[in-house]
Amino acid sequence: MVLLWVTAGFGVEMPDHGKLNTEEASPVDPGSMELFFGYGYTRVKNYWDNDRTSRSRGLWEEHAAGMAVKIGIVRDLDLGLVLAYLGRKDRDHLTSQGEQGFSDLSLDLRYRFLNLKQYQLEVAYVVGLTIPTKSSLDPISLESGQEFWSWNNALVVTKDWGAWTMNAEAGYSLPFGEHRGPARGIFSTNLALGYQILSWLQPETELNYVRDIRAGGRPGENLAVTAGLVMPINDLLRVNLGVQQGLWGRNSDQAATFLLTVKLAF
After folding, report:
1. Residue 94 has pLDDT above 70, yes or no
2. At 230, phi and psi to the nearest 5?
3. Following DSSP, what letter does each residue of 138-169 receive, concatenated?
4. Partner of 184 for a Cys bridge, out of 10, 103, 116, 213, CB 3.0 to 4.6 A?
5. Cβ contacts of 212 within 8 Å, gap of 6 or more
6. For residue 195, what pLDDT band results from cuts at 50, 70 and 90?
7. CA quadruple 4, 257, 35, 113: dihedral positive or negative?
8. pLDDT per residue over 16-67, tens digit each?
């Protein structure tokens, strides 16, 4: 975990790079480990149609409890694993009583191939797999995951300007396997900006964009804003707290999500 120091009258020397929805380019140190415990609550009462018009729908809710681990392998390279348990309820769905189950398993490697300390600039490539954990192909199910594998790629940039810190991320998830159906990939890009006011407090805001590409179908798009607090309490504990709100979209839900993440570093 990044250590933070406060110099009276001169601000913070090194801001924390962790954000709510945008990846960071800084890997875990070799031989170290970070554990993440997260909770998210999502609520939807509107959606955007193919003309980008907001329309009402029945209440859709999701509770997500997740756990992730990141392990430093060698210098500039770490390994990550993510798994969550989801509970969903959709008033517009045939299974309105709700369903729950594990999400897909995600594995990734983050390689920081550029680290220019004199410019406070880091660039990393993140590659990984999404592995389906459910086998049901029931068309009326509120599936908590996808039915196919995905090859995930992302380029991540982290840049500091004193107490200001910025993360930028652009990625593409490519589906494969016999059950991918019309899915052809998901493009996503995120931009986050934070200011380390105190050693334990960093307000931050993000723009998050996703485009779901489908063969012979209407693509889904969603632009959301995230606002929150990054709170590195000490060199062991960090707490992230915030909300995300959908701003604009097409063929997608207009969601509001509450986010809480606790990180333990060893």
Report:
1. no
2. -100, 120
3. -TT---SS-SSEEEEEEEEEEEEETTEEEEEE
4. 213
5. 183, 186, 219, 220, 221, 251, 252
6. very high
7. negative
8. 999 999 999 999 999 999 999 999 999 999 999 999 999 999 999 999 999 9
Beta pairing partners, 229 = 203, 241
Please answer whether residues 98 and 152 qualify as being in contact, where contact means their C-beta atoms are separated by less than 8 angstroms: no
Q: Give the single-character DSSP code of 29.
A: P
pTM across the whole model? 0.89
Beta partners for 236? none
d(Cα 69, Cα 140) in Å, to the nearest integer? 33
3-class DSSP assignment, residue 249 = strand
DSSP class per residue in 1-27: -----EETTTEESS-----SSS--S-P
Is 90 exceeded by the pLDDT of residue 186? yes
**Which residues, at least 6 apart from 190, have a Cβ–Cβ distance to it below 8 Å?**
21, 22, 23, 167, 168, 169, 206, 207, 208, 209
Distances (CA, A) of 113 to 9, 109, 239: 34, 12, 28
Percent above pLDDT 90 for the chain: 77
In 10 A of CB 102, how many CB atoms?
13
Residue 129, pLDDT > 60, answer yes
